[in-house]
Structure prediction request, 142 residues.
Amino acid sequence: MNNVQISALDENPGDSENLRQVKALYRALKSKDQQIIKEILVDEPVWDVSPGFPDGAVYRGISEVFGGFYQKLLARVHSLGAFPDRFVDGGDTVVALGHYHITKTDGSSPVLVRFSHAWGIDDKGRVKGVWQVADSAQFFAS
Prediction:
């Protein structure tokens, strides 16, 4: 038996260009590569974050998404990472199903919060934004 772990973010030969873009965006977000993020996203991306999630609202543009939503969210936790488990390629919409791994304080046990991200892709292959739904109760669980 092969013990090589395959990440959902690894590119596969059968991946569409749109799916490759979404996977590349997750990798760029994880590494905080702002240049790649800006290349992948449209100029005015829209993050539609479910109302029950912390700071849930619709965020428009790079400054609202990264200077508003993420800045407020990250101030609530010690660490946060999004880990897709699988993707559903719907052409101009790519859905990621996965978990946020959140540690609330230094040394605390991680909390797993399930999410669904529906990414919109424009006709040039750039990511228009995301419609996010997550298990808000788990986020607030101690």
